[in-house]
């Protein structure tokens, strides 16, 4: 049987890991990357003793396959895990950092939630299924099952901080399929978590709550960089895809490599670039596909790195960081304590923090005077952390289109993508679009 000739568009972590496994399956794989280096959003920058992530700050080892790839590409010994202090999370409430309870006993002792909110949680196993199905937001789902206060001070800040999303708009089925599945399959969250743990044990998987947080000694960019080096000449950088033409039994890719126009023939195309970018590539093949891809919303997010001398920080550095509920009315989403989570992110006498601004709930903050906004955010952060001095490091990175939002109605996009892939399934599989 002839090897399938596969073109992977995008050398981010999705494209590179896909190419890695396709190689294992004896496919002839070529990865096309428009940028001059691999990694996509997974980039690491250095300034003095500070190591800063401009994209993902860490990963969760939910499967042994992550370690398997790291070992095979030669950086298994560079993989590091989060310090135990990073298990502590804080939530801002009434201008105070309050620890998020990490266990049932801690929850019932916590001052973050009222007595009535704690009693409301006990009702969860007796709450029935919803009739809303796919058209239910994570906010509606959580308030129905766990109550308003749990939504406001647990789920809302989590969704904002991790997804840069709006819980009133995000689809619980599309954005949190495993959570939705607990209700659909087991009838409730508490019952589902108990039974789901047995399934994960059988499948040798870990829940995100118990999976180890990992990075690499030289930052997250080490991972895609090592995979690309392992793949060698199969990865082509500085290659901009200009057009994709569908032929009878294959595809022709027209691209520009270092200002030189070239062509490439492929049996299979795997697109791993953001949907708003892939929309343009598939417009001549399927206008409806492009429309669905273009409609997926990516909010703007600014990442702000701040470095301080430890002697100027009054708050104990004993956690992952803090998240800010919408009810607290701040101009940023939260901050992670980067130098607490992993070693060598700063010198021994300094600390590195990473703040997040904007997102789906407050994209309008970027319409404000940015100097004024920045001053307010730094002042608020310093007050919460008990810092009197100015930062010794300030570094920003703006993402105009940061994280895709699986909002209500996203199922219509998923249904079309599935239909498109089946339509183009001339072999076992033909065109796959990851978004």
* Overall average pLDDT: 92
- How many strand elements? 20
- Spatial order of the strands forming the largest sheet: 8-7-16-17-18-15-19
What count of helical segments does DSSP give? Answer: 15
C-alpha Rg (nearest Å)? 23 Å
The N- and C-terminal alpha carbons lie at a distance of 31 Å
Instruction: Report the portion of residues in β strands.
Output: 15-25%
> Helical amount among residues, as a percent range?
25-40%
Mass-distribution shape? globular
What would your notes on this structure say?
With 435 residues, this protein is α/β, with parallel strands linked by helices. It contains 15 helices and 20 strands. The chain has helices at 13-24, 64-72, 104-109, 115-121, 138-146, 148-163, 172-175, 177-186, 189-202, 222-231, 275-281, 287-294, 338-341, 370-385, 410-423; strands at residues 5-9, 28-32, 44-47, 50-53, 59-61, 79-81, 89-93, 96-99, 212-216, 235-236, 239-246, 251-257, 260-266, 268-271, 301-309, 321-323, 334-336, 350-358, 393-399, 431-433. The longest helix is centred in the middle third of the chain and has 16 residues, at 148-163. The radius of gyration is 23 Å and the shape is globular.
